[in-house]
Each structure stands twice: as C-alpha cells, then as structure tokens.
Amino acid sequence: MRLSGLSRLQKVGLLLLLPALVYLAFLSIYPMVYAVLLSGKDVNLARPYKALFVGLGNFFRLFQDGLFLKSIYNTMRVAFVSIVLELGIGYVVAEIFDKRLKGMEILRTVYMLPMMVTPVVWGLVWVYIFNPNFGLANYLCEWLGLGFQPWFASADTAIWSLILVNVWQWTPFTAVVFLAGLSGISTTLLDAAAVDGAKWHQIIRYVKLPALKYVAMVVILMRMMDNLRLFDLVYSTTQGGPGSATETMSFFIYRHGFKFFNVGYSSAAAIIVLVVITILSQLLIRIFYRGGEIHE
User: Fold this and answer.
1) What is the pLDDT of residues 82-112, one digit of tens each?
2) Closest residue by Cα to residue 268 from 68, 49, 25, 51
3) Closest Cα to residue 170, out of 248, 104, 222?
4) In whole angstroms, what is the distance from residue 141 CA to residue 122 CA?
5) Which of 45, 163, 218, 276 is deepest in the core (most CB within 10 A)?
6) pTM for the whole thing?
C-alpha cells in the first residue's frame, strides 16, 4: 500500500494508529517471538554463553517431565471445578440481587469487593484465615464440630483450599454478568409464562436459562483463560506446595524461569500453555458461533 495513494484523512488515521502499533510490537509481538526463539535453546541465565540449539528438545523433555504433567492436571482441575462452582453460585446470587428489595444496592456493592482487590492481597489474607494453628477457619470448624482442617498445609486439602479462595474471589464477577443478563430478559416474557401457570422452577428452566446461555458461554471463556494462567493466587498462598500438590502451569514456568534460570525450558512451557489456551478458546468460540453468527 503506497502512502501517496491515501487521502489526508487516511494518513491521519494511520498516524494515530502508530503509537498502538509500536506498543503492540514491543510489548506483545517481540516478547512472543523471543520466547519462541528461546524455546529452541538449552540456555541458562547463569551461563548464557553456553547456550545450545536443541530444536524441539525442550518440548520433548517437558512431555516426559512428571512435574509439568502434574501442573497441567492441577491447572485443569482448578479451572473445571472453579468454573462449575462459579456458574452455579453466581446464578443463584444474581437471582437474589435481581429482586427489588430494600438495601440490595449496598449488598451488591459489598459483594463485589473481593474482585476489586488484587489476588495477591487476598491470598495473603487467606493464608492467615487458613492457618492451622490460629486461623479463623479452624476456629469456625471446631465450633461447627467439623474438627481440625489442615487447609493449605496438606497435599490432600491444599488444592481444594485454593479452589475455594479462587471461587470466593471471582464468583462476584459471574454474578454481575448473570445479573446483567437477567435484567435484559423481557418482563413481558416472564409475565406471559406466569399467566400460563408456569412455576418458578419452570420459568428458570424454560425462560431464563435459555436466555442466559450465551452469557454463560462468555463467562466460561473468560474464566477459562484466567484459570489457565492462574499464578498470583498460587504464589501468595502455597508456592505450588505442599510438594507439587498445587503446582500450576504458570507457576511451573515461573519456577524454572526465575528460580532455576532455565529460560529456554520455561519458554517452551510457556509456548505450550499459549497453544493450549488458544486451542481451548477456539473450540469454545466455534461452539458459541457457527458461520460467524450466533447459533440459535
């Protein structure tokens, strides 16, 4: 495309786009290309002058690395369980918030607080709440007769404690999206169903849930991408432990890249994570849309 053939308005438009293109090139495209180049090398920052080209060697090593495979399993488990719980609880909360009750606006604001604070801060708070010796959680468990719970301290309960915190923080987001969807349902449709004698559970099943189907799909897509990149909550609570009980893909990349300085190995893992997220996202998008239009 020759600039001489463009109108003055088109040239101004290109000029305005230039800062965004430069930003994209230096902060997105260049790091990604550099990570791809590093993934083909056996390079350690402690001895960068001994870098060796290994081709796909790092990728083959990763698929034979039990810890990396465990991190994939942990990440998928956290993502699946968290999304299912967030959808269920988020819908119930949205139904409650959709009622025109006194003081509901204040309750909505308070409920949104968890997602307004960075996960690292909440992670540190929950470390104290789940402390086996003096944490509030065990005090409540003893009071309810549930006995002592090790929470983050045990390999059996750490992953579920992590899921609990993740769901607690991000269910408000799901509730807000569902609430917006419920607000968009025509009251005429709901009144017609009520006049026809439909009970509350039939209205939910045959009117509200079909209307919220695409809203739920968007929530699933967004939360899936967030959970597959889960790092900050793991970093601030369990550091991937005990053992490898809560090791996620992002924390595996961090550990090898910034603790062991194996940047070639960690770059290969990051490329795999990128491919996994891209494939799953495309699969979901293809389910949502067919032929460029929403499938009815």
Assistant:
1) 999 999 999 999 999 888 777 788 888 888 8
2) 68
3) 222
4) 21
5) 163
6) 0.84
